[in-house]
Amino acid sequence: MQAAFVLPVVFLAFAIQSGESIKCYNCNSASDPKCADPFMTGENSNLLVECTPDFVKQASDAINAVSKKVSEFASSFGFGENKPSTEITNAEFICAKEDFSNGNKTWTVRHCALPGSDKTDLCKYLTDAGKDKPNAPKVSFCDTCNTDGCNGASDVQAALMAVIIPCAALILAQFN
Fold first, then answer.
1. What 3-state DSSP class applies to 105?
2. What domains lie within the chain, and their CATH numbers?
């Protein structure tokens, strides 16, 4: 009786995910060298976050605070700035990875992002943002994706299930 109960419980434990939101790596190699390539997912599982409106809003608020200071400084010299709308509601999220360079400095950023539209494409926006500004960071790589952990490496849940199910079957065979 117990053996018949073990397999469904083991299967459900690994099949049920913690939420429906995508999970992305969230880091910046300028402050965390482990974020740089080559990226080791096993060592960086603590950087995997669930992309929820609250999480992205907190990150966006922090970025907007810095952006506001930069905009105020730039406007004092007569420069303006257009930026895409970042309204966060019940949007589905994507993962993003960018590599930046500025002079001899390079860094990698991995994060949750809002999906692009005809008006706002993250990679195009970031690439265009530094075109006319000689001292601005340049984007050397930018990519977005829409599966868990895709801005680091492939998802391991399927591989884990391929190991767990045969192990559970072996355990059940011991009880028969």
1. strand
2. 19-171 (2.10.60.10)
